[in-house]
Write a structure and sequence with these properties.
Blueprint lengths: L13 H4 L2 H16 L4 H18 L3 H8 L3 H14 L2 H24 L2 H12 L9 H32 L5 H25 L5
Helix pairs in contact: 2-6, 3-6, 4-6, 5-6, 7-8, 8-9
Length: 201
Amino acid sequence: MTLLTGAYVAGTSPVHRAPAGLKLALLAVGCTALVFARSLPLVGLAAVVVVGLYALARIDVRAAWGQLRPLRWLVVVLLVVQVLIADLPTAVALTGRLVLAVALAALVTLTTRTTALMAALERGLRPLRRFGVDPARVSLLMSLTLRSVPVVAGIAGRIREARWARGRERSVRAFAVPLVVGVLRHADAMGEALAARGLDD
C-alpha cells in the first residue's frame, strides 16, 4: 500500500461506515485545524486523535506505515532544514503536522472506496456547474491523481533498489532518467486507456 491510493481496506468499523462526504468534510476541518496547531502539545494531542481514529477503524500498523513510508525522506529533509533555520521544537511541530495531515488523508482512502469518494466529490462540486465546471471530470481527474501517486512512488522504489544492486546509489542520472521514462510510459498508458473510453477530449 502506498501513499494516498484508493487502497481500500475492507471493514465494518464506524469509520468505514461513515458517509464519504462526511469524511471528506472532516478531513478538510482536520487539516485546517492542524495549520493552527503550532505548539508541540497541540501536535501531540492531534497525534493521539489520529492514532485513535486508526484504532477505531481497525487499520493495522503495516497498512498505516505503507501509506506514510513514501514520505520518510521528505520528512527527514524537512526536519533537518527546519532545525537549521529555526529550532528543534518548531521543526518537530511542523514536520509532525505534515505527517498527521497525510495520515488523515490516508485514513480516508483506506476506509472509503474510490467510487464512493468520486461520487461524494461530484455531489460537492455540483454547485459549480453554473460556472462551467464539469463535476464528473474534476472528480475523475482527482481520482487519477491519487492513483498516480503510488505508481510513481513504486517506480522510484524499484529504480532505487536497482541502483543499489548495481552499486550506483549515488548517481543522480541513474535515478532521474529511468524515473522520467517510467512516468512517461505510465502517462501514455493512462492516456490510451482514457481514449479507449472516450475521455480524451
